[in-house]
Design a protein that fits this description.
300 residues; alpha/beta; Purple Acid Phosphatase, chain A, domain 2; six-stranded mixed beta sheet; 27% helix
Length: 300
């Protein structure tokens, strides 16, 4: 199977019609280029929109629908800037029913992978605290999910996706409010995984970063915002390996490159464009191949 991972899209609303048109032109191109790869799933790692309005979410999903992408978004802090979780719920988890009546997290199977989608965003964005938080209820659910995974031999990989990083893992995750506040509790749940490797995909910090394996065999893959890094992740999963590549969007068309600059610099607040060289990372932050150790049958 192949799936795409998108960092923080920050799809924003603008007051000027020319900026709105530039945004639409850019994201149509982004989604068309992704659709051409024919991925099984496209994951958006939160902060999918900038101000968290229904207008942003509705307009974004119109563009997604036009390219028929198998799009699944998890919540980011910006997605909860204006509305309650119940109000934004139809736009997240790819139409799947949340495992909680109060939060937006779930799990599902696809071929040899068990995917867990976390809800690391607080109830509405606080201007004073944009760190992540995983509720006690969700931590208990996560631990139960991993325990269940440990008993199912048909699932070869566990892949977890959330917006905020685990503290002390990927780039900038030790800085204030740039990780899950209760990372220790979440990582304790990760630590219960046995018999296979685990991968945690996150965003939030607008920089490509890959760390791992750690002492427990976990890999941490942070993906930068496309409006900064001009790129996305392509993940290929086979029976014996996971390959993570970073692919650049094609912005060679001058009109598209202009739309890119207008869209990223025209956001009035809550998004500060970063230099490409800073967020793009090293080669090791952009490429990773994880080989799965296969069981060797006992000799007769």
């Amino acid at each position: 199977m192949r799936f795409i991972v998108l960092g923080d899209l920050h799809f924003a609303e603008y007051h000027q019609p020319e900026l709105t048109e530039a945004r639409n032109r850019l994201f149509r191109a982004f989604f068309a280029q992704i659709a051409a790869l024919k991925p099984d799933i496209v994951f958006a790692l939160g902060d999918t929109v900038n101000y968290g309005t229904l207008a942003e979410l509705t307009n974004l999903y119109r563009l997604v629908a036009a390219t028929d992408l198998p799009f699944i978004a998890v919540t980011g802090n910006h997605d909860l800037a204006s509305l309650e979780k119940a109000e934004v719920a139809p736009f997240f988890l790819g139409g799947r029913t949340p495992a909680s009546v109060n939060e937006l997290y779930t799990a599902f199977n696809f071929e040899q992978v068990r995917f867990i989608l976390l809800d690391t965003s607080r109830i509405k964005l606080s201007d004073l605290d944009w760190s992540g938080y995983v509720s006690e209820e969700q931590v208990e659910w996560l631990r139960a999910e991993i325990a269940r995974f440990n008993t199912i031999a048909t699932h070869q990989y566990l892949i977890v996706l959330g917006h905020h990083p685990i503290f002390g893992t990927t780039e900038r995750s030790t800085e204030e409010m740039l990780s899950i506040f209760n990372s220790a509790e979440v990582y304790e749940s990760f630590a219960t995984l046995s018999g296979t490797l685990g991968i945690y995909f996150c965003g939030h910090n607008h920089a490509h970063s890959i760390i791992g394996p750690d002492a427990l065999g976990w890999y941490f893959v942070q993906t930068a915002a496309p409006l900064d890094c001009r790129s996305f992740r392509l993940v290929t999963v086979t029976e014996n390996r996971v390959e993570i590549e970073t692919l650049d969007f094609d912005l060679s068309d001058p009109t598209l490159r202009q739309a890119f600059e207008l869209a990223r610099t025209g956001i009035e607040s809550s998004f500060e464009p970063q230099e490409h060289a800073v967020v793009y990372g090293t080669f090791l932050d952009r490429s990773l191949t994880i080989k799965r150790e296969m069981e060797v049958p006992a000799s007769l």
